[in-house]
Amino acid sequence: MDRRLALVTGASSGLGAALARDLAARGYNLALTARSEAAMRQLAAEVSGAHGVSAAVYPADLSAPGSAEALVQELDTRGVTVDILVNNAAFGLTGPFVNHDAARLRAMLQLNMISLSELTLSFGRRMARAGKGHILLVASTAAYQPTPLMAAYGATKGFILSLGEALHVELAPSVTVTVLSPGLMETEFNTVTGFVPPPAAKRFLLPTERVAKVGLDAMFAGRPSVVPGGWNTVGVFANRLMSRHRAAKIYHQITQGH
Fold first, then answer.
1. For the chain, does the N or the C end have fewer beta carbons within 10 angstroms?
2. End-to-end Cα, the chain, rounded Å
3. Global confidence as pTM
4. Using one digit for the tens of pLDDT, what is the confidence trace for 152-189?
5. Is 153 an active-site residue?
6. Which of the residues 28, 144, 153, 251 is marked catalytic?
């Protein structure tokens, strides 16, 4: 059986690992990339044993300039054809924008936007030529409003949402592009970024397995975007009923516990 292959970025843990597991359960071979090689090898062995798919590991730090191009070249050298691109790798910075470390800020912008765009360009171009393919871009509910104290991170996610929804139109109907915008999830993201969710928000945490299924179902259905979770959907809709300035002030008040 000639299985199709999905490339998943940020595949070592959290939502990336959940997306990889879900794709493997659907019968797709995997190319996994992230910085943590050991975690990916463990995941590769797990999904191969459980679902009989192949899972290859390609360690890469996509926050480094030129890393996306190097990854594409390595896959080409190995003769890997990507049928599904899942651009999930990202990290966030919290706190006042003027307090950010400049090098960390550049790395976040590189990972969340530039490497994502370069991979989407490379594989999107090939999919368009082949007349088939799927692309899933992972944004966030932060994409739908300004996010004080996560200002640059929210802006990167707004970029992803706008890019993906535009490409959904450009590449239709042969290539589907879908933007998945999760809210709070049960992942290491909050610990890594230093973000402390308001106590009231913790009841809305979604398991990564559920978010992954919602995103992939939407991608295969050809939807332009999807927001998992009823309360997240309500929140995104509510933002449309007020000015962006008002939404930013409310977000600031909530995150400060006011």
1. N
2. 57
3. 0.91
4. 999 999 999 999 999 999 999 999 999 999 999 876 55
5. yes
6. 153
